[in-house]
Amino acid sequence: MITKVEICGVNTSKLPVLKNEEMRILFENMHNGQNEARECLIQGNLRLVLSVIQRFNNRGEYVDDLFQVGCIGLIKAIDNFDLSQNVRFSTYAVPMIIGEIRRYLRDNNPVRVSRSLRDIAYKALQVRERLLAENSTEPTITQMAEKLDVPREEVVFALDAIQEPVSLFEPIYNDGGDPILVMDQISDDKNNDSQWLESITINEALKKLNEREKHIVSLRFFNGKTQMEVADEIGISQAQVSRLEKAALKQLKKYV
């Protein structure tokens, strides 16, 4: 029970493991029309799906969903496996399972990318692999664009479009202490120390005002209301609002 892990109601600690000879017999029986043999092949190879989905643990997807999608890839591999080819079933099935999961992740990506952009990006990646194999050096965007006969800018845009979003809380370095996150490496001009201190200073200065002055400043400069609207809300004339506002600002300026 300690090692029991259930995925989609399947107790993974009790999954069967088929030997090569058993697999061959089951495939022959399946091709002869025995549906029970197909079910045995699926059950006997679920561990392949488990091993594959571990590669996608950091995607934030539910394990049950990935497992079900991986099972679809496994079933496709079983239905299309050719016994006459001198290749192990696992060698044939793993890429199909990975491909099915990648398609699922791509189609369910929160950032929607047009099919035409995806096509350019995937063709560019194929060209990159081919040029890398031929020249043993990383090809440039210009070289890939020339091979595809598309503008360089389109290749850059397409490759950027298929990049998966990265969480701001993704750790990028850990020396045994607190990890350094992506957000720690991003500058924010709107939230720096000087503005933080300035905000504290203004809050402290507001405490020096009386309740009416504080209320007027809040309505005017935090809620964006006009002097007429403030006058109507608190029941005094606009001239009084103007006078109180000037006095409050003068006091704030003196303190800051």
Q: What labels would you give this structure?
A:
256 residues; mainly alpha; two-stranded antiparallel ribbon; 4 strands; elongated; disordered N terminus
Q: Which SSEs are present, and which pair or pack?
A:
Layout: E1 6-7, E2 10-11, H1 20-31, H2 35-44, H3 46-53, H4 63-80, H5 89-107, H6 115-135, H7 141-148, H8 152-161, E3 171-173, E4 180-181, H9 193-206, H10 211-222, H11 227-234, H12 238-255
How much beta, percentage-wise? under 5%
Helix content: 55-70%
Computed CA radius of gyration, to the nearest angstrom? 32 Å
Residue-averaged pLDDT: 80
The count of DSSP E runs of length 2 or more, i.e. the number of strands, is 4
Largest sheet: 2 strands, antiparallel
Structural class comes to mainly alpha
Task: Explain what you see.
The chain is mainly α and about 260 residues long. About 60% of the residues lie in helices and about 5% in strands. A two-stranded antiparallel ribbon has the order 1-2. A hairpin with a 2-residue loop joins strand 1 and strand 2. Helix 3 crosses helix 5 and helix 10 crosses helix 12. The relative contact order is 0.05. The N terminus is likely disordered.
Question: What's this model, at a glance?
Answer:
With 256 residues, this protein is mostly helical. The chain has helices at 20-31, 35-44, 46-53, 63-80, 89-107, 115-135, 141-148, 152-161, 193-206, 211-222, 227-234, 238-255; strands at 6-7, 10-11, 171-173, 180-181. The longest helix has 21 residues, at 115-135.
